[in-house]
Amino acid sequence: MNGERPDAEEAEEIVRKARRKQAAQKHPQRSALYGLGMFGLVGWSVTVPVVLGVALGVWIDGRVQSHRSWTLILLLAGAALGCLNAWYWVQREGGDE
How far apart are CA 33 and CA 41, in angstroms? Predict the structure, then answer.
């Protein structure tokens, strides 16, 4: 047969390659830059609520005399909110895997 394969084997290989290509398109490879971007997104999603909570707490503590530290309370609330926000983003981006 002059180095050629029978038609059935050739068709089988074409189908196998097409399935592999479709599977690769459904689950694209992500680059290192994607990972760095996700790392930055998660970092900022925690940092922003914490900083805003501290700023608001300092402002409240400066205006209101209280036996509570609003800075500490809002720092913890911002950290909790930021962690929930980060969890949301990680679940959203990694949910298809």
Answer: 12
For the entire predicted model, the pTM comes to 0.63
Q: Phi and psi (nearest 5°) for 50?
A: -65, -50
What are the tens digits of pLDDT across the range 39-59?
Answer: 888 899 999 999 999 999 999
Q: Spell out the long-range contacts of 46-52 with Cβ–Cβ below 8 A and sequence spacing 24 or more.
A: 46/79, 46/82, 46/83, 46/85, 46/86, 47/82, 48/82, 49/78, 49/79, 49/81, 49/82, 49/85, 50/75, 50/78, 50/79, 50/82, 51/78, 52/78
Give the closest residue to 75 by CA, choosing from 48, 93, 54: 54
